Amino acid sequence: MNTPAILKTFHKGKMKEYFVRPEGEMHTDIGIIKLDELREKNFGDKISTHLGVELVIQKPRAPDLFIHARRSGAPMMPKDIGVIISNTGLCSSDIVLDAGTGSGILAIYLGSIAKRVVTYEVREDFLELARDNIALAGLSNIELRLGDIVTEIQKLDEKFDVVTLDTMASAQVVPYVPDIIYPGGFLVAYSPFFEQAKEIREAIGKTNFIEVRTIETLEREISFTDRGTRPSTARVGHTGFITIVRF
Ligand SMILES: C[S@@+](CC[C@H](N)C(=O)[O-])C[C@H]1O[C@@H](n2cnc3c(N)ncnc32)[C@H](O)[C@@H]1O
């Protein structure tokens, strides 16, 4: 193979995993891995460290990017991304408008399903970091655009099936969404705070929307130990509110 890969092993009671490119070598606490050897391997094969620890080679998928990609700030959590995908019915013919790009994690999940994603980021350094993450994901259907979505959306003459907003400026973008969305299309706005969600709802109230609701998703992992089975005491707390609008 000549593409990035995930190397994974369960060693001394702990999962160890590495996101690597097939070049050079990597020094780890379980030994040296000759990454050049990956060129002769396929996904599903194993590779050994010089200490004889075997790692399985996996094809990277979006959740691997969430764990291993470089971050410019807080990426959206998979539990919230799942809500966006399920509530919009995102599919392979969809064209998506996304802002702000951030680390590109939401864009990568969207791009793994949709036909095309156009994503706007106001900061050039963040855009370049997201570009690297998207290249690592091996996606070529995500177009990165530098600019302030509040002004850029007003210049667009394309239409979209789904619009996702994850910026503090989302409420200012909402008035322009009806002009660039197909009838029946969805807008989803993610807001970390109640105040921001309220601002978004007020902005939506002034548009020709058909349906709107705001939800929060809670995730509880279940822990299995010799002592018993129960929800894990370490948990993901509040992340954000998701407002889903249909036009
Ligand atoms: C919370 S992050 C988005 C994270 C992203 N959804 C992900 O999963 O990686 C918000 C991003 O929006 C960008 N941003 C803020 N205001 C913006 C605007 N007016 N236009 C475009 N991007 C903006 C910020 O620079 C930041 O990178």
Give an overview in words.
With 247 residues, the chain is α/β, with parallel strands linked by helices. It folds into 2 domains: 5-60, Vcp-like ATPase, Chain A, domain 2, CATH 3.10.330.20; 64-246, Rossmann fold. Helix content is 28%, strand content 32%. The protein has a 7-stranded mixed beta sheet. The chain has a 4-stranded antiparallel beta sheet with strand order 2-1-6-5, with no helix packed on it. The longest helix is centred in the middle third of the chain and has 14 residues, at 124-137. The model has no long low-confidence stretch (mean pLDDT 96). S-adenosylmethionine (SAM) binds next to helix 3, strand 8 and helix 5.
Order of helices and strands: EEEEEEHHEHEHEHEHHEHEEEE
Low-confidence stretches: none
Q: Provide a count of the helices.
A: 8
Query: What share of the residues lie within helices?
Result: 25-40%
Rg over CA atoms: 21 Å
CATH topology of the largest domain: Rossmann fold
Order the strands across the largest sheet as they lie in space: 9-8-7-10-11-15-12
- The CATH first-level class of the largest domain comes to Alpha Beta
> What's the CATH H-level homologous superfamily of the largest domain?
Vaccinia Virus protein VP39
Helical/strand content category: alpha/beta
CATH architecture classification of the largest domain: 3-Layer(aba) Sandwich
